[in-house]
Fold this protein.
Amino acid sequence: MTTPTENDIPSPKEAKGKKGIVIMKKIVQARSEGKKLEVSWNAKGQPIEPGGTSFISYLGSYVRANVPITYDDWKDSSLDAYKEIIWKNIQVTFNVDACRKTFVLRKAGLLLRSFRTSLAHKYLKDVNGDYLENPPNQPPAQYASIITEDIWRQFIAKRMDKTFKVLYTIYI
């Protein structure tokens, strides 16, 4: 995989047809008008209303649309370019202090992991939680605009490889 640049990742306005971005019309419109949305924080440093829910929803949507699901470790240094682009996008879209960067990027990693887990459970496992022998070759239709066939196949291969390694160590 190549390292992304800011020009490689579409702005929310360009990505309007992608899942999640359509729901964020108010956020995208405010951003295109140069307005930053406010986010309130509680004493524990977590986003709260007003603005907290839409902030987290937007962050999740942006991460799903722009970070490949093939990355398993958010601490991987090859993700640094993606993290900087995410942070810059959040700063342009929301009024968030630099002291919140660690929280924002940690949350982005959790949202990506949650998305990967959800995909595996919905499309790669049966009702018993066992991986399918023949998982689908194509990404799910609702995610086809954000997951390429190549990325989907890499995702499946990684999941199957992990499963084999776990089974191998259990039986030895």
